[in-house]
Amino acid sequence: MTDAFEPEIVAFCCHYCAYTAADMAGSKRISYPPNVKIIRVPCTGKVDAIHIMRAFEKGADGVYVAGCLEGDCHFKTGNIRAAHRVRRVQALLEEIGMEGGRVEMITMSAGMGERFAQTAREFTEKIRALGPSPIRDAIRQSGRRAAG
Amino acid sequence: MITAVRKSIEEIIACVSPYDRILLVGCNECVSVCSVGGRKEVALLSSALHMHFLKQGKTMDIREMTLERQCDPEYVEELVNYMDGADAVLSMACGCGVQTIAARYREKPVFPAVNTTFMGASERQGVWSERCQGCGDCVLGITGGICPIARCSKRLMNGPCGGSTKGKCEIDANIDCAWQLIWDRLKALGLEKRIEDIMEAKDWRTSRDGGPRTITREDLAS
After folding, report:
1. Out of A11, A16, A79, B38, which could bridge A67 as a Cys pair, Cβ 3.0 to 4.6 Å?
2. What is the DSSP letter of B120?
3. pTM, rounded to two decimals
4. Which ipTM score applies to this complex?
């Protein structure tokens, strides 16, 4: 019997909007998939391309960066910069033969608890459809080789 | 600064795939400023290569180092303790850095991870443009601070040519006509009469035409 695939997803959420939206989802008892592991950042502008790459290197199947709505960034343009970096990582992933769609930029306001939950559900399903990251499989196999 | 662009991952992989242990060396100077070969880019390339080889079932040992200045033997010496643990060196510096490593560590293959492009200036965030070709005999003092060698497509010393239209160059509508810029600048400085002075044929021996160049400062050289 094969293990059912449960995606591991890392979500970099800005303190002022997306993280607060996640809080809002919790307060409103709106459930979202436990596959999504949140990392709170002061602003999505703080998320560098290497942070996203490291998440994939460590076996994440998908990563999204969730920031404020365009024009509403607490630090003015942090979310715009983050969106550029996400595009850069998408291109880099494609260069090494991985799906660029495994990383995405998402925006929402602090009050959008429902959107946070919906986004988490949709992204989880999208990654489930893409299947496990080849890196995750490779890490597991190299672990087996080392153990064997 | 010296500007560069990263080579395709495919080309880099083709260079390093025969090896198991790579020393990936960045530079904190020009290539760091033009966001192609500094510490961050070294980490990104290392991560991408690591994942690529992991997918192939190979664990590539990549050690990351970013030197203060890769074109200076003093800093390149810092790699000495890491060379035994590397089968090859992958440099993210300009061609000067790559060659400084190759000259010091003759027994190690060295590969460039970037294409060195031009001497340029930053126009705005993320945009760099060619500004100097190192001709060895600067004329900026008589051309209003705009270089006809680096910025005129024909390197005309007495322009503009007939291909100048509405301030743009005939080769590309996005490229300013250097001689239009020179004229505008001279006019702003009240020096428009200078445009009528004929510049004599330039002595290109001070440029690359004189062969590879060396500067020796007697007061500094030992």
Report:
1. A79
2. E
3. 0.94
4. 0.92
